[in-house]
Design goal:
Neuraminidase, four-stranded antiparallel β-sheet, 24 strands, Phytase, signal
């Protein structure tokens, strides 16, 4: 029996090493988090307003009885909520007015219950929930992104589902305070779907006012985030650039209206890079990462202490973990490719 355990341990070690070494040019993670119980899926980054070096990575463990985990910048688990019904994706919102106070929060899709659950940050205390896609046969929420209108300060949640119709695939909800409880009102239904696989990753560029989402075997769709600007598609890009599934979308600003959009090329273990100011120009770089089958990702340009002075990209990887990458290394690869 002891020999069997030794062999299994060696196989596990070799498998882990092969994931990190399968592409000798792949960027190596600066930090690999502690493992969750079942299967990581999607991360988000909460910036600590008092000390950015104490910011938190929040990530989902997506199976039934999974949960929402909080990690510090060393990858250590510092808090968690477990026993959720297939929590899938997560995003962060700032300054939601509730009971006369402004609350930062994490919004999580829960597929088994057809709900979005909302947790205060940094405590991870549940402060609300609401059902999504009411009246629809196809529900099972997956993707989620939070949008705060820079002018009105209204906070919206855009939610996608496992599968759905060829249009109105995403629903946008406005969050408000209803006598101390979070109220979510549908303000519009939008978004084309190719029908080829599914839509999961959703990201919002609040400054530019755009919603991006991955139609996984088709392309990346772009719509206005402001409901008042209409529901017509602005742009479709990325077609033909991916090995198969188009996954996590992360937006890194380098200046007003400028920067990069990084999108996970899941089966190739790379991230395709597009210009934030003009993604229609096409892919400007493809950066290999040590992630395995990366599904969800998030990036920030805010300095997070000495280890991540120009920000960090966090990406899900097989093995029940998330990887942290120093942005400077990614920037170097993008610069070389250009």
């Amino acid at each position: 029996m002891k020999r069997s355990f030794v062999v299994l341990g060696m196989l596990t070690l070799l498998t882990s090493c092969s994931v990190l070494k399968k592409n000798k040019n792949a960027l190596k993670p600066d930090i690999i988090t502690e493992k969750v119980m079942f299967d990581t899926d999607d991360p988000a980054i909460w910036i600590n307003p008092d000390d950015a070096s104490k910011s938190i990575i929040v990530g989902t463990d997506k199976l039934t009885d999974g949960g929402l985990y909080a990690f510090d910048l060393e990858g250590k688990i510092i808090n968690k909520v477990t026993g959720l019904g297939r929590p899938n994706n997560v995003d962060i919102g700032y300054g939601l007015s509730l009971n006369g106070k402004l609350v930062d929060f994490a919004a999580v899709t829960e597929r088994d219950t057809d709900k979005v659950r909302i947790y205060s940050l940094p405590e991870l205390k549940e402060i609300g929930e609401f059902s999504v896609f009411d009246g629809e046969e196809l529900r099972s929420p997956m993707g989620i992104s939070v949008y705060k209108d820079p002018e009105s300060k209204d906070i919206y949640v855009i939610v996608g589902r496992k599968t759905g119709p060829s249009d109105q695939y995403l629903w946008q909800y406005r969050l408000s305070d209803d006598q101390g409880k979070i109220k979510a009102d549908v303000v519009r239904k939008l978004g084309q779907f190719s029908g080829l696989k599914e839509i999961e990753s959703i990201a919002v560029d609040a400054e530019l006012g755009f919603i991006y989402y991955s139609d996984e075997m088709f392309g990346v769709h772009v719509y206005h985030a402001d409901p008042a600007k209409g529901d017509e598609e602005i742009l479709l890009f990325g077609q033909g650039d991916f090995k198969r599934d188009i996954e996590g979308i992360s937006i890194y600003p380098t200046g007003k209206g400028k920067g990069y959009i990084l999108i996970s090329n899941q089966q190739a273990d790379t991230f395709n890079v597009y210009l934030r100011e003009d993604p229609a120009k096409g892919k400007i770089a493809e950066v290999p990462f040590s992630t395995s089958e990366s599904d969800g990702s998030e990036v920030t340009a805010i300095p997070l202490g000495d280890r991540f002075p120009k920000g960090v990209l966090v990406a899900m990887s097989n093995g029940k973990v998330f990887h942290y990458y120093d942005w400077r290394k990614i920037e170097e690869q993008i610069t070389k490719a250009r």
